[in-house]
């Protein structure tokens, strides 16, 4: 359970499967070839879990395949409204772009995956539609308590999810730094990282207005690189550094 929203040889990573969950799906629980396969794959440093093929397809549909459908659907929603609201694309450059990152994944691969797991996806789409109908009714009836519970329960469950480790959806190892609107502050941070040989994959200022602190988001290839950068910047800069 590892990968990237990027594709091609240039997106390869030596540590791709390190600490990731590697699900093995033998047709028979006592299949000795499972242990043999683990020996072949132990060099990946992955965490092996044995489940039935049916359970595998159901679980990855919930936490990986279906979220890709939703992310793509949200992007289509904005695309369809783009002609009516010319500013929409510019406004979507911040948080909306972040929550729909996985919509930039390889279209051919995800069309193949969706067709291969279509029965589970159809079942989840039906359940999702029922869930949205409940939200729609709560809005129509102006039921504040129901809406509050809807958001609160989602927040509570999400806050309990592990922050570290690899899951079904590729992780984005982001570090956030509160920076003042001062010339040269970004280069100071990137120079410190470069001096220690810490590579970054992406960098962007999420918000920066005059006399207001901006948020610098720095993306790394691995959790280890992010942790090294966080410790370095906390020690050698006055800025607030954190992980969301």
List the helices and strands and how they pair.
Elements: E1 21-24, H1 33-41, E2 47-50, H2 53-81, H3 88-91, H4 95-99, H5 107-116, H6 118-140, H7 144-159, E3 173-179, H8 185-195, E4 202-209, E5 212-220, H9 223-236, E6 240-242
Parallel strand pairs: 1-2
Antiparallel strand pairs: 3-5, 3-6, 4-5
Protein name: Prephenate dehydrogenase
Catalytic activity: prephenate + NAD(+) = 3-(4-hydroxyphenyl)pyruvate + CO2 + NADH
EC number: 1.3.1.12
Describe the structure.
- The structure is a single chain.
- With 244 residues, this protein is of the alpha+beta class.
- The protein has two domains: 151 residues, Orthogonal Bundle (6-phosphogluconate dehydrogenase C-terminal fold), CATH 1.10.3660.10; 70 residues, VC0802-like (2-Layer Sandwich), CATH 3.30.2130.10.
- The chain is 50% helix and 14% strand.
- The strands form two sheets. A four-stranded antiparallel β-sheet has the order 4-5-3-6, covered by helices on one side. Strands 1-2 form a two-stranded parallel ribbon.
- Strand 4 and strand 5 form a beta hairpin.
- Helix 2 crosses helix 6.
- It starts with 20 loop residues before the first strand and ends with a strand.
- Belongs to the prephenate/arogenate dehydrogenase family.
């Amino acid at each position: 359970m590892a990968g990237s929203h990027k594709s091609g040889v240039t997106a390869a990573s030596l540590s791709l499967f390190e600490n990731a969950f590697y699900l093995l799906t033998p047709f028979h629980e006592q299949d000795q070839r499972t242990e043999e396969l683990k020996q072949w794959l132990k060099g990946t440093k992955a965490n092996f879990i044995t489940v039935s093929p049916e359970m595998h397809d159901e679980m990855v549909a919930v936490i990986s395949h279906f979220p890709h459908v939703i992310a793509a659907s949200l992007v289509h929603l904005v695309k369809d409204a783009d002609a009516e609201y010319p500013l929409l694309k510019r406004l979507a450059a911040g948080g909306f772009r972040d929550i729909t990152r996985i919509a930039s994944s390889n279209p051919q691969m995800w069309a193949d995956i969706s067709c291969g797991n279509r029965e589970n996806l159809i079942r989840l789409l039906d359940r999702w539609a029922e869930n949205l109908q409940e939200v729609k009714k709560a809005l129509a009836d102006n039921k504040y308590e129901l809406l509050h519970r809807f958001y609160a329960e989602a927040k509570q469950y999400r806050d309990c999810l592990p922050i570290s480790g690899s899951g079904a959806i590729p992780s984005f190892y982001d570090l956030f730094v509160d920076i003042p609107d001062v010339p040269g502050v970004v280069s100071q941070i990137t120079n410190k990282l470069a001096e220690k040989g810490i590579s970054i994959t992406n960098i962007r200022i999420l918000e920066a207005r005059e006399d207001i602190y901006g948020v610098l988001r720095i993306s790394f290839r691995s959790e280890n690189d992010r942790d090294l950068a966080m410790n370095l910047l906390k020690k050698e800069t006055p800025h607030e550094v954190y992980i969301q």
